[in-house]
Amino acid sequence: MQSIEDLLAKEGLQHGEPFASADQHIEGQLPLAIFDDTEYESRNPEGWISKTLEAPPAPGRVAMPSSNGNFAFQNCLVVDYNQQHNSFLVQLASDQSGSGVSATDKPAQHWVPRIRLYFLSEDPFLYAKRVVTAHQARKEAVHAMRYHLCVDSMPADAMHSLSVEQINRVLMLALNSKFLRERLSETHPLVNEAITDYARAMNKITFDHAARTRASGVAGLAMVPLDMPSLQKVETRQVPKCAIVAVAAYSFPEKFSSFSFLSLLTKAEVIAALVKVRAECNKVGKMSLFNGWYTKSSTFEEFEVAQNQTIDQSGNGLRDNWVTAVQLAFKSSFKDVGKGWYNLSERNYETYCFSKMKSLLAVTRFMMEDTLRSLVLDNHAKFVAFVAAVCSAKVTVVDTSNVQVVYPTATTASTQKPPLLAMELQVSDGTMITCKTDLDSIVPRMLAVFDRAITATQGIPQMEPLVMEAIAWAFKPTIQSVHPQEPQVVAWRDSIAATLTAALHPTRQYMAKVQAYCSWLAVDPVAYVEALQAKSEEPSLAEWQSDINKHQRELAAMQTALPSAVNLGLTALQLGKVRDLLISKKQRLIRSLKEGLSRVPRRIVAAVAAKFSEVEKRLRLKPNNIEEVADQRQFIESLPRKVTELVAEMDAAQGWYAALENMRFSLPDEDAREKAAGEALPFRIDRFKEAALATAEAETKKYEEAQQSEQSAFQASIADLSHAVASMQSYTDMSAATAVADEVSSLAARLKQAEKDAALYNSREALFGKPTTDYSEVKKLWETFEPYQQFWSIAASWKEHHKAWMHDPMNKLDGEAVEKEVASSVRTMHKTGKAFAQRGLQAYAANCDSIKADIEEFQKVVPLLVALRQAGMRDRHWEQLSQQLNMPLKPDKDFVLSKALDLHLMDHLDTIQKISEVAGKEFSIELALDKMAAEWATAEIAVLEYRDTGTFVIKLDDAVLQQLDDHIGGRSQTTHMRTPMQYCLLAVHGKRVQCQKEETRSLGVTQVKVMVDQSFPPG
């Protein structure tokens, strides 16, 4: 197959000959595109390329200029067509070998005229002929322009001009009618034009003669070079002999009769009716199906209502006003026409079909359909352009505070309109920022408005049933309107959807960036502060300040970053309410943090105030004795140091208050009062201290005088006590032991009180600064009296206790307590007996020996009581004891010690003690194990799966591990004992053990039963 270059070469165009274009051409060459002969075009532009999304671009070859000024054909893809400039958009392919077109690379695109573009699907011979014809036409045009330029440039001054006679004759012939003479009063310009044309004609004759003469070999003429063959082709106008055009002969009456029979325009009524119909159709053509005028942004609901109102008004106007007006136009025009071609009262449908009224109504229907179609297409095209215009801005969302909107260059400040749609953000569910108008619904709803306008123009009745009312019509035909599925309508619908989707993308981007503030909405200021205060350690002032400063910075950044409204091209997004809510939320959080911070110094001041209150309470306390006065003095002496410490504690709160003041935080009235009161506390304490010192001085004098009189009475009391102690030697009758014991107890209390009083008086004398009085006599009296007190208290209690121990139920007795009391009584009797013997009180000494002997006799059976009252004795022990004694022995509530002696259990004391000792040891083990079990009952152990082995690892913390070590050490000391209870001890340190999970969970920790492979060995 021959290439296009070879075909052009065969036609006489050498390779590399330029294709001059309108915007780039070689000097001296006219653009080749203006000489393109469209007669060679085999298709219209839509036949070469399709603008649908599914159609691929058409392959072709395009002549492109090279660096040396020549043009060369390159492979390309034709992607678009501009009807206004009659040019095609080509995309050069990367492969320049001429073998094919590659669509993988994306080089620059160029708009080129049709003459430079060769489609691979067109006839190459026809295209080559087209290019050659354009070249030849340009060549001839250049020669004609040179020829006429030379003729027009020749001087006419020396040429022979028209004479006056000739001019007058021309004027007479030209103005040979009254009409022309009245209207052409000024003929000078026409005469000058005729003279100029005459002179040019003379110059042309001279130039043609000179050109032919030079061509015949005459030299010496300096003229512009001309191509004589081309010059001969210059078109010359043939001047007609007469000023009329000859036409073929025909019969006018016959033609007029035929025309009148076929034409509707033979009656004035028809022309009047058509004029009225056209006028009504022109009115309809000016109607608007959409409302494209707005001065401010509105919500989509408002926009939708405005469009629907306009569509409804237009639809109603078409169905009511238009149809009625056309109907009235016919009736008014033909009301006086009777029977014939235009009979409005015709009843026969067949006759009507042969009448001209039928044709006239058909023409009317065509006019109305054409008007309706033009109305729909024009308005929908305007609506598409309107949508494209409101979406034409290029929006770049950098962040919430930086939105760059670039309008088309044709838009000026005076013509720039606000965004079409006003959208408002809202907070939903308390934590989500959403748009009141669903963005996903805008495109379907806008398309619904688009389709509703088409629907509103459908169903309009035709004129035939309305005009020819006498005919019975079987149905009411309607005027055809634009179908919603026509290709153009579908393309417009797709264009609107694509345009709106692209225009809403910045809004979606902006809302995505606004979602970053949703986390603010989820923060509860009170809970946030409580969580901050619930930390294990109280936050420091620096931590409080850091947290508050962080939130203040975030608030300032948000106030700067989030405007109240933002222009996003198609939409004007209103953020005022959301912004105010976010600011309010953050301000409440900052306020809560400041209040939380203010509570810290308030607690410090309250704590210090409480301590000052204790000091004040102590200072205001009235002393009741000299000791309290001395304590008060000592407290006042230590008060400066304590006040200094409290002031230091109070000063610790000043840093917090200073921070609050720097934050411009206004303290509540109560906190301000507490702060002021706390700062005044040291001065208040100073006043109370002075008052307390004065009170202490007065009380000291009063108590000093009182003590002098009390000491005088005390001396007399000491003499009375000395006499009473001396009289104790005479009490030797054991039968009155109880009465004597009571008297001895009373005397002992008096002596003890005397010792206390003596110590009190001596201490007070030290407080008063006086020398200490010697009260050693009181201590000597007690040393003399003590043996009497010990003897008579034991003598009185022995009888009662001995009777209770022998005859009270044994289950009420404590064997160990009895054993201790008996041993103590024996030692005391032995000691007092020796003391009485040394004093020479033989009667007392004998009484001591007698009571001691009785107690020692009872002391022999105490081991039996202790053994029988062993706390660890169980039924098994009593059964064992009964077997060894060969008698049933199990003490009940009636069993007493005297009965045990009657059973001669003292003879089996060793056996009873052995079994009791074993029971006591087992009981101590039970207590220890019960304690271990109680401690492990509340222990929680984390059990983790160990890889894929089906076993688990026990994770122990340090406290549990220490408890385990302690219990294992305690268990090692008791393993030699047998017990009927089974106890489970954790016997491993963090190593794997077999365990079985229970189906319960507590506090998030899996409770387990650990199966320990070791148990207690047999004892």
Oligomer type: single chain
Largest sheet: 5 strands, antiparallel
* Structural class determined from secondary elements: alpha+beta
What is the global morphology? elongated
Helix content: 55-70%
Distance between the termini: 115 Å
- How much strand? 5-15%
Rg, Å, rounded = 65 Å
Poorly predicted spans: 20-27, 95-103, 218-222, 975-1019
Strand order within the widest sheet? 4-3-2-1-5
Number of H- or I-type helical stretches: 30
Instruction: Report the average pLDDT across residues.
Output: 79
Number of strands: 15
List the helices and strands and how they pair.
Elements: H1 4-10, H2 45-48, E1 58-65, E2 71-82, E3 87-92, E4 109-113, E5 117-119, H3 124-153, H4 164-174, H5 178-183, H6 188-215, H7 228-232, H8 252-262, H9 268-285, H10 300-333, H11 349-354, H12 356-390, E6 394-399, E7 402-406, E8 421-428, E9 432-435, H13 442-456, H14 463-467, H15 487-514, H16 518-521, H17 525-533, H18 541-561, E10 565-567, E11 571-574, H19 576-620, H20 626-662, H21 669-726, H22 737-768, H23 776-807, H24 815-839, H25 842-859, H26 862-868, H27 875-885, H28 897-902, H29 909-937, E12 942-945, E13 952-955, H30 958-972, E14 995-1002, E15 1005-1010
Parallel strand pairs: 8-11
Antiparallel strand pairs: 1-2, 1-5, 2-3, 3-4, 6-7, 8-9, 10-11, 12-13, 14-15
Helix pairs in contact: 9-10, 9-12, 10-13, 12-15, 13-15, 17-19, 18-19, 19-20, 19-21, 20-21, 21-22, 21-23, 22-23, 23-24, 23-25, 24-25, 24-26, 26-29, 27-29
